[in-house]
Design goal:
This protein has 382 residues and is an alpha+beta fold. It has 17 helices and ten strands. It has a five-stranded antiparallel beta sheet with strand order 2-1-5-4-3, with helices on both faces. Strands 7-6-10-9-8 form a five-stranded antiparallel beta sheet.
Length: 382
């Protein structure tokens, strides 16, 4: 009988620290769980989450080469008849339970789940339990011993109990963090609707996202080095400022000119985020319609605005005078700085037919006979 486990306090503490740190870096979770599996001398781990009200699997993470091949079969059929699922639902969150606590040899010998699925894939004894329970969503974790190995008892079960306590706290933090990632993703619509230009950049000054207002003010080459501002006063230094802000975490403001128009740029550092993306556990959020957040790799946010006293005030006044909608005002602002209707449609992510309808509305409300006359009147006063 294999007896490869022994208590190693320093290693255990490091693993617990790694577990909590993975909240900020979900891509590290499989590796952390694999190291815990090795530390406890187990034969694989399955982290599985359900939405009980919909009977849907929310997340599934398998560690261990011997049992990974069984995941698809489990999710397609056997998860619905897994007797350990009900054990997890009945057990307190964060408390370790073992299959042999309730399922004796007689049950196992007559169980379709054990005889046709679990044992043929290797595992015989399982210990773990519920690590998350909220609003009908449950996440359980199962550590496996293969056929021929002993039950989970004694000091190993005690050690697993220590991890279960921390895993329940970790999972709650993980779900909350995914909620923040979901909020960041959903906030993109709000960012894109702003009349102020906003650009998210990484440490190297590469553009992660520029909202339509930023594209209108800075041009459609915001993904290039220097945000496409090379050749303008101070423009060639913008990327250097971005890297400085990323390194020093101190904000910087500067003024540049584009198309003869002064623009105020403010570069501000964002809280640093470890990792990039929601892997495995992120499905708890993805399954409800969330997506990867907008700011996962962002280090600096740039805001760009036209100083007071420029054409912005004129356009705002005309919009109020003519009774323009916010979309029509945004179009008028784009036309005033030389953006074509097609360029505006692309920048806003709308159909050109929509923009053409807005152009007709602008002409009707402003009383100008054609687009050239409208743009000439507005640009001549900016």
């Amino acid at each position: 009988m294999r007896q490869g486990w022994r208590e190693r306090a320093g290693v255990r503490d490091a693993l617990i620290a790694d577990l909590y740190e993975s909240v900020l870096s979900p891509g590290d979770v499989p590796g952390v769980i694999a190291r815990i599996n090795r530390f406890l001398d187990c034969d694989g781990v399955h982290l599985i989450g359900w939405d009980e009200s919909k009977n849907e699997v929310l997340t599934s993470l398998v560690v261990g080469s011997h049992i990974q091949g069984a995941e698809t079969t489990y999710l397609s059929y056997y998860q619905a008849i897994d007797p350990r699922r009900q054990m997890g639902l009945k057990s307190p969150t964060g408390m370790v339970v073992a299959c042999h606590d309730e399922l004796d040899d007689a049950f196992v010998s007559g169980s379709e789940f054990y005889q046709d699925f679990l044992i043929p894939h290797g595992p015989r004894y399982v210990a773990g339990g519920n690590v998350y329970r909220e609003q009908g969503r449950n996440v359980h974790i199962a550590f496996n011993h293969f056929v021929g190995r002993a039950r989970f008892e004694g000091s190993k079960r005690d050690a697993l109990g220590d991890f279960m306590f921390h895993m329940s706290r970790w999972m709650k933090m993980m779900v909350r963090a995914d909620g923040l990632r979901e909020a960041a993703a959903n906030s993109q619509a709000g960012v894109d609707a702003l009349t102020q230009g906003v650009v998210f950049l990484d440490d190297q000054g590469r553009t992660l996202h520029a909202n339509p207002a930023a594209v209108r003010l800075l041009g459609d080459k915001t993904g290039r080095v220097n945000l496409g501002l090379s050749g303008t006063p101070d423009g060639s230094a913008v990327d250097a400022h971005i890297r400085t802000v990323a390194m020093t975490r101190r904000p910087v403001s500067l003024t540049i000119r584009r198309r003869g128009q002064p623009l105020t740029l403010t570069l501000s550092p964002l809280p640093r985020a470890a990792g990039g993306g929601t892997h495995a556990l992120g499905k708890l959020v993805v399954s409800t319609g969330g997506t990867a957040g907008l700011h996962h790799r962002a280090s600096v946010v740039l805001t760009v605005s036209e100083p007071a006293g420029t054409g912005r005030e004129l356009v705002a006044g005309l919009a109020q005078q003519w009774g323009l909608t916010p979309a029509e005002e945004a179009l008028l602002r784009s036309l005033a700085v030389g953006t074509s209707p097609a360029g505006h449609a692309e920048g806003r992510g709308v159909k050109i037919s929509t923009v053409r309808s807005q152009v007709r509305a602008l002409l009707e409300k402003s009383g100008h006979p054609n687009l050239r006359a409208l743009v000439g009147a507005v640009a001549g006063n900016t």
